[in-house]
Amino acid sequence: MAKIIISKDLIVRITAFSLAAVAAVGMAMNGCNSNSTTTEAEVSSISFAPVAISANDSEKSVMRISPSITVGYDDNTSVTYDLTYKELAKMGDTIGTGKIGRMTDINGDPILKGNDEDISDGPDGNSLISVGGKHYLVTHMEEAPGELYNTEVKVENGVFSAVDTKPVDLSVMGGTIINCASSKTIYGSHLGGEEDYSLNSIFADPNSPFYVDCALDGTGNDVGGVANSFCKYVDGMNKYLGDANIDKTNGYNGDSFSPYNYGYIVEVQPQADGSTKSAKHYVTGKYTPELATMMPDGKTVYMSDDGTAKGLWKFVSDTKITDFNADWEGTLYAAKVIQTSAQNGGEFDISWIELGHAKDSEIESIIKSKMKITDIFEISKPDVNGVCATGTKVYEDSTVECLTLKAGQETAAAFMETRKYAALKGATIEFRKEEGLTYDADKNVLYISMSEIAKSMEDNYKGLEPINDIRLASNICGAVYELALDNSYSGTSMKAVVVGQPLDVNDTYADEWSCHPDSISNPDNITYIGHNTLLISEDTTKHVNNMSWAYNTQTKTMTRIASLPIGGEVTGVDTAVVEDKGILLINTQHPFKDNPKAADGSKPNTALLEAATDDQLKATIGYFDGLPADIFE
User: Fold this and answer.
1) Which of 211, 219, 360, 481 keeps 20 to 30 A from 131, CA to CA?
2) Is 170 in a helix, a strand, or coil?
3) Interior/surface letters 237-267, b for 16+ CB within 10 angstroms, e for the rest
């Protein structure tokens, strides 16, 4: 019997048929949709054709993707599909009634940068979600203040396009900040992380030895006129809120602003009428979340934590979450690792330390009571010998602190000072640049990317680490880890499966590259797309171009599938099927901005970045065109 695949080139796949029948079938099917697939066979493998590294300035300056993908089927046949890169939108494009990437305040009015509208160059997490016969793309803007856009998309005559866009109204939660990567829930909503690097409460309380006195004049400077990251974030959020009563003497709490209101997981669910439901899930804890990933049980959610001296987190809901719910309730856990090997990125056994149980509304009420860190902890600095006169020494967020928990503050500590409390309870707060998360249902494992193996992941980094669970050799190129899960989706062990290769100054490629171009450099977004294929994407200045890779989890082979314009980070990788068309989204964030370094620290491509045109500097949401739908179904 014939088995037929119709692609845009009208590919007809035959397992047992005569040449005459081939011609007849081809004519009969000539009017089919260009991306539809009709077959009795199941996809058994996919293989992207590789992309070569850039050979000249022209190639360095553009997006280049795999020219084709070969799809194998379980009847021992295969089909090769041609692929091309297409742009869906550039930041600042007018789409229907809206302008994508335009930053807005709590009233929906444009935020200005000088005399012009502030147009983001930071599109990050994407979630392509279908509801009620319509299709919506939720996209992060990784800014302070943050912004999410909800864009209606469609496929018509085989063409994927944007119809209308508008900002997601997050005013009820006080806005959001540094919206980084994202994932989709099992019931069709978007989960994203507020990658709040700098609103650490130690800087907000005059009774803290780490207090920062901000000018609060919109410059991001302290009162001495010195740029400060904490002040920049406070000023950034105030561009959104317009809070005239931020009180520096009371934890920087204002009428609407509080440092404790940021650093959580945000959920957005598009509705068929174009509106959205949204919530901030305080029960996932406050730290620097890259993103959250929900397991198939609808109860277990993992969160990563970006930066130095960070944790790995797990939330378990009391009941299965089957639809949007603004008030999650459950238990938060922190990972405790025991290192079993230091080879090739390391191996670890994992257990979980319970931090607390709460519901979102409970934590929200505590935040609204305008607390500051010294309401929760007694805090001091170690002496010159690194000894705490009082309290317990902890190392979190690149800072050594002496902490004593105050009576009755366990819940506030668990969910609003999550890293500090976890460190007090003996959890491992030593991860470095913990980025992407993605679940592999074929192996029942969770993949985690560490952009670098460095600093707090080294052996007692600078003598700062009071516990020192992780003791690895530094690797500036980073690694991707595989977290084994039990039947309850709880992590039991972790090992590195892909490790980058740093270059010495005399190595081949070292004149432009710091990490070998045939392996990963600073992995960030990771997405498992099935068929033993893990997509690994980079945020690096150690490759000339940031890249995306297809890693085969069985054969352990790596294929370079995208090379971005120089200076641009890979973000927003997501897959979906829209009207029988396979879509693989890929963003170019801040092109021509990050200057890549050679192994000796030099920057040989500076002139190319400085010559960038205004159009080249625009960040882009794009996609691989030509993919068959059945690889994502």
Assistant:
1) 360
2) coil
3) bbbbbebeebebeebbbbebbbbbbbbbbbb
Determine if the peptide bond prior to 145 is cis (ω within 30°).
yes
Distance in angstroms (rounded) separating the CA atoms of residues 33 and 579: 10
SS3 at position 366:
helix
**Non-local CB neighbours of 407 within 8 Å, separated by 6+ positions:** none
* 538 close to 551: Cβ distance less than 8 angstroms: no
At 12 the pLDDT is 37
Indicate the burial class of 103 (C-beta count within 10 angstroms; 0-12, 13-18, 19 or more).
buried
Q: Encoding tokens for residue 291?
A: 């993103």
**Residues forming beta bridges with residue 269, ordered by sequence position:** 277
Q: How far, CA to CA in Å, does 75 sit from each of 3, 25, 407, 443, 553?
A: 10, 19, 66, 23, 22
| Phi/psi of residue 217, nearest 5 degrees | -115, 10
Q: Is 410 left (phi over 0), alpha (psi -120 to 50) or beta?
A: alpha
pTM above 0.85, yes or no: yes
Which residues, in sequence order, are CB contacts of 369 under 8 Å at separation 6+?
A: none
| Closest by Cα among 354, 348, 490 to 431 | 348
What span, in angstroms and rounded, lies between the C-alpha atoms of 303 and 591? 28
pLDDT for the residue numbered 15: 38
* Rounded-to-integer distance, Cα 68 and Cα 110, Å: 41
The amino acid at residue 13 is R
**3-state class of 5 per DSSP?**
coil
